[in-house]
From TrEMBL:
Protein's UniProt name: Intracellular proteinase inhibitor BsuPI
Organism per entry: Geochorda subterranea
Lineage: superkingdom: Bacteria
Length: 263
């Protein structure tokens, strides 16, 4: 996840520092176990770049928008388990630098399911931005701050329910035709990364179309909103099968019916 905290109206600058590897570091662990990992920073610039690293909690709100908070702010935060090798580093020009971290899972036999947090990586200095024109007053300059969020996930090996609910389904209509909007809520204790698709059947039971949804990434309690475009449909009744396949033993589905109008 690459987050632009601010941007000028004259275009976005590119980050001065890069990350090598995945933005999700996931570990299957036991209570009392310790694991270690590396964050590899790359500096493509011709001068040194200072980088700050720190932890935050990550959740989504009831509409699926990301929310960052202080580490340890919710019951499934693993931020208190994590120690960073360094909080500020300088990456030489044209080189890479590895920063170590360690996760020490408490020896608590009641731990179950998934615990997570976000390791934030951002430059020590903001990107320069262009000043906005202000002929009758002071010029206003907006500086850009780029940051990466690396998700550090610990999945406790053993029992722990995976459960996904489909809520607030709505059939929407605009100039492009019909669309099904639905919120997916992770009601279990394990994270889910399902592939989502919709199958639309006409009144004869024939498959009219299949629509792929956006890949979802849901921690326990998270919400992900899906909007699946159906396009223009002939009038008549239809049935919808909505599927979220987690790529393992967990496949979730919902069934809906609606009638397309004649307009």
């Amino acid at each position: 996840m690459l987050v632009a905290l601010a941007a000028t109206g004259e275009g976005r600058a590119q980050p001065r520092i890069g990350l090598m590897g995945d933005l999700v570091h996931a570990y299957t662990v036991q209570p009392g176990q310790s694991v270690e990992g590396l964050v590899v920073l790359a500096n493509p610039q011709d001068r040194p770049q200072t980088v700050r690293l720190y932890l935050q909690d990550y959740r989504t709100d009831d509409q699926g928008h990301p929310v960052y908070a202080e580490p340890g702010s919710h019951a499934r935060s693993n931020a208190p388990w994590i120690r960073l090798g360094q909080s500020t580093v300088t990456v030489p020009p044209g080189e890479q630098l590895a920063v170590a971290y360690a996760i020490r899972v408490p020896p608590d036999g009641t731990l179950t399911g998934t615990y997570w947090s976000a390791l934030m990586v951002e430059p020590g200095e903001a990107e320069p931005g262009a000043a906005s024109p202000a002929p009758d007053g002071p010029r206003v300059s907006i500086r850009q701050v780029w940051r990466y969020a690396i998700h550090l996930v610990t999945d406790i090996d053993g029992p722990g329910e995976a459960r996904l609910a489909f809520v607030r389904p709505r059939l929407l209509e605009d100039a492009g035709g019909l669309a099904l909007q639905v919120d997916m809520v992770n009601e279990g204790v394990r994270w889910l990364r399902p592939q989502v698709w919709l199958e639309l059947y006409d009144q004869e039971g024939r498959l009219a179309t299949r629509v792929d949804g956006a890949p979802a990434h849901l921690y326990p309690g998270d919400v992900a909103r899906q909007r699946l475009e159906l396009g223009s449909l002939p009038p008549g009744p239809y049935e919808v099968l909505l599927v979220a396949d987690n790529g393992d033993a967990h496949v979730f589905a919902a069934h809906y019916r609606f009638v397309a109008g004649s307009h």
